[in-house]
Amino acid sequence: MIECVPNFSEGRDAAKVRAIVDAIAGVAGVLLLGYESDADHNRSVVTFAGPSDAVMEAAIRGAGRAAEVIDLSQHEGVHPRVGVADVIPFVPLAGATMDDCVAIAHCAGRGIWSRFGIPVYFYESAATIPERRRLEKVRRRGFDGRPPDVGDIAAHPTAGASVVGARDFLIAFNVNLATADVGVAQSVARKIRESSGGFRFVKAMGRFLASRGCAQISMNLTNFVQTDLDAVFEAIRAEAPVASCQLIGFVPKRAYAMFPGFFERAENFSASRVIETRMKELGAGEG
Amino acid sequence: MIECVPNFSEGRDAAKVRAIVDAIAGVAGVLLLGYESDADHNRSVVTFAGPSDAVMEAAIRGAGRAAEVIDLSQHEGVHPRVGVADVIPFVPLAGATMDDCVAIAHCAGRGIWSRFGIPVYFYESAATIPERRRLEKVRRRGFDGRPPDVGDIAAHPTAGASVVGARDFLIAFNVNLATADVGVAQSVARKIRESSGGFRFVKAMGRFLASRGCAQISMNLTNFVQTDLDAVFEAIRAEAPVASCQLIGFVPKRAYAMFPGFFERAENFSASRVIETRMKELGAGEG
User: Fold this and answer.
1) Which of residues 78-137 of A touch B (CB under 8 A)?
2) Between 20 and 30 A from B8 (CA), which of A46, A238, A259, B194?
3) Selected residue of A24, A114, A156 to mutate for chain B interface (largest B Cβ count, 10 A)
4) Angle at the Cα of B155 (from B149 to B161), degrees rounded to 5?
5) What is the pLDDT of residues B231-272, one digit of tens each?
6) Given B75, B79, B106, B156, the catalytic residue
7) Pick from A56, A103, A106: CB nearest B114
8) In whole angstroms, how far apart are CA A15 and each of A18, A70, B207?
9) Would you say B120 and B149 are in contact if contact means Cβ atoms under 8 Å apart?
10) A262 CB burial (10 A radius; 0-12, 13-18, 19+)
């Protein structure tokens, strides 16, 4: 079993998002765990799992459908993005290895290019160029003057590029502040993130959330086993007034067991947010 | 540039073969060099070339179309085969490496399984199980009790499996004997082939060719640089009466330059059988 959590650059038009989700869920063997759209960021995150080849095919079809329904040249949104099927990570679940996910990522990338003409960059464990391991660096496309890993960057007029990779489970967690001052969120983000001397395995950025009229700290927690999530939250609370929290996607049972309070703080948390529970609900659990 | 030379298990129904060829040639960037059908063997060999990802997509689509038009359970023919899209080798041409072809073979195999439900074995340089390097061994499917490299062997009711790989250029050359005694052809094949002590890099088998009412020695010459092709032919002629010769597919310019008499002996030889000449004719040559 592997998981795939693609990000699409559409979070406002529900029919377009549904078209992409249907293309993914239509592949035999694929288990759609859920999807979430964010109007401010104008992006959606779809979570699905299944046998590696079914997941690969679903990811390719999702990218193809996204290129049909989304026009990047018309896109607006606060989140950085390089394409309509912006980021496509494959994650090993039970019985799968990172090497499996690298192979699937490479084949998915080739398929996305050969079937839809969307150029592809490989990142994280699937990177073939060391400087492209980190997503943030790949996003500054053209940074190295080198062509994409697959295809021609100028090939598609409206789909941009896709960044396809293999990585470990990642927790996406947003903290909304009781202030509209995006400078505060940016300052807190700098304090807590690894790249500027904060917590290891924490990525964070501050931004303004128009729909709530507040500043937000958007975090990626890339290694919940080695990060004290409660300490991260306390560090935020010590610096700025927290209004609410939101979880994006799913959480491994092990992470929830280690830091239940952290996750229960999210306004959208429920037992179904634990991936093992969600898979069992959908009839694919081990139990 | 890479070349692909898939073998399909249909050599009698021209409309079915044409449907497969059209699926391949319809991929942008693909250069169809030619195709040949053999009614006795009930198989067709298609030769095409192009940028790696276009060639990969064309190979996948060719396999999918073959599964639509051919029913292996109804198949008759003297050539051993495991599937409707029986063998799909990728060959490095100018600017490509064997590693490129291995990557393409693996992704093509995954695509053939995930899109059409046809299980795939990897052979030659693309083999992931050492015992599957040689095509003859893979053909005895189930020989090792292990599952295919991709997919489930029982998955497809009428398409069988595909053997997908990466290999160097190979010359396929048939010698028709002036005898109907298949035992003679088999005896000569044993004398000349490497596996029973003959010439290095020569594979050969003897069989009866119903359309001509004669015995035939069917050869694969896997390394023309290190095999004296004239000596191979003389060894055959010393043992049995030769009626005619046939070349299947194409010959590299270098091989033709080394042994012009060997190739010109084929009844179907022409300058267009030299791959560099053929590509130039089609407007894709270097010159």
Assistant:
1) 103-104, 106-107, 110-111, 113-115
2) B194
3) A114
4) 55
5) 999 999 999 999 999 999 999 999 999 999 999 999 999 999
6) B79
7) A56
8) 5, 11, 61
9) yes
10) buried
Can you tell me whether residue A41 is helix, strand or coil? coil
Q: Note the pLDDT tens digit of each residue in A98-137.
A: 999 999 999 999 999 999 999 999 999 999 998 898 888 8
Mark yes or no for CB contact B57/A115 under 8 Å. Answer: yes
User: Cα–Cα distance between A33 and A93 in angstroms, integer?
Assistant: 14
pLDDT digits (tens, 9 = 90+) for A213-267: 999 999 999 988 899 999 999 999 999 999 999 999 999 999 999 999 999 999 9
Question: Which residues does chain A have within 8 Å of residue B56's beta carbon, measured at their own beta carbons?
Answer: 110, 114
The structure tokens 């276009």 sit at: B54
Q: Which CATH number does A171-281 carry?
A: 3.30.70.670
A62 interfaces chain B, CB cutoff of 8 Å: no
Beta bridge mates, A38: A43
User: Which is it for the CA torsion B12, B15, B21, B24, positive or negative?
Assistant: negative
CB A85 within 8 A of CB A117: no
CB contact under 8 A, A107 and B104: no
Listed residue (A270, A124, A275) closest to A203, CA to CA: A124
Burial label for B282, CB within 10 Å (0-12, 13-18, 19+), is: middle
Which of B55, B110, B156 has the highest number of chain A CBs within 10 A, making it the mutation to test binding with A?
Answer: B110
pTM greater than the 0.95 cutoff: no
Compare CB distances from B115 to A57, A103, A150 and report the shortest one's residue: A57
What is the domain partition of chain B in residue ranges? 2-166, 171-281
Q: How many A×B Cβ pairs under 8 Å?
A: 37
Do residues B180 and B209 lie in contact, with contact meaning Cβ atoms separated by under 8 Å? Answer: no
Is the separation of the CB atoms in A102 and A166 below 8 Å?
yes
What are the tokens at A271? 């037992």
Q: In whole angstroms, how large is the CA radius of gyration of chain B?
A: 18
Q: Which B residues in the span 171-230 are in contact with A, Cβ-Cβ below 8 Å? A: none
The yes-or-no answer on residue B79 being catalytic is: yes
- The answer to whether A101 touches A1, Cβ cutoff 8 Å, is no
Look up residue B59 and give its two tokens: 């190979």
Q: Do B104 and A110 touch (CB under 8 A)?
A: yes
CATH of domain A2-166: 3.30.990.10
Optimal mutation site among A110, A152, A164, interface B, most CBs of chain B within 10 A: A110
- Outline where chain B has alpha helix (H): 14-25, 52-69, 98-116, 135-139, 182-192, 229-239, 253-258, 260-264, 275-281
| Selection from B169, B168, B158, B164 nearest residue B86 by Cα | B164
Catalytic positions of A, written as ranges: 79
Residue ranges in A37-164 assigned as alpha helix (H): 52-69, 98-116, 135-139
